[in-house]
């Protein structure tokens, strides 16, 4: 089973439409891995994580087929991760009632979806709270609350498969104690961790930079969540995260050589 990073950028993406900073100028000129659309992921071909404004573009450019989609897990309601109207728009006129999709999210996400009716697919919704697990096809997806904004329960997702395990941890400041407790002794092979602020950290801004990532990784290693072989991928990358552009994280994460920038289209094999 494959896990794909459909988009690796922050709410702006790179290049920013109105930005002439060196990161955006370089991305505009060079394209490739320097270009970043808004963060989202695909597990296999039937499970999507987040459904932001770049989802349709990502499906077309990366060539994934959402007619096979069965589940959508939403991290939180910010518009770079979820758009109720966009989801509704994408089902207009498709008349595929046999495609049953279950969308999982917090109360704010479900509230934003509630006014929309007559989807072209059969859309079901399920409220997820921190600590709850959804099981299907030998896969377990566990919601874990994190510290991002105070107005809703923003969720990380632990994906446990018969092979490798993944932790989606974008849009997060330092993890709360409850998250460490839920992750204790549960192995994570690939963590996609919020690196919005790049090599610096900005306190209490709802995102992370390298100093905070270092602390989180060290603690997750001590409690056997991360091993020395685990891959640590920076995601939700911002044009504010100087120095960019690069594909290798500029500062090594202590003794771990696996800290790298993720990028749009990155695929890891979970077998
Ligand atoms: Zn975001
Ligand atoms: Zn810029
Ligand atoms: Zn957010």
UniProtKB/TrEMBL annotation:
Gene3D superfamilies: Ribonuclease Z/Hydroxyacylglutathione hydrolase-like. SMART domains: Lactamase_B (SM00849). It comes from the Bacteria. It holds the Pfam family Lactamase_B_2. Residues 37-201 form the Metallo-beta-lactamase domain. This is Phosphoribosyl 1,2-cyclic phosphate phosphodiesterase. It comes from Victivallis vadensis.
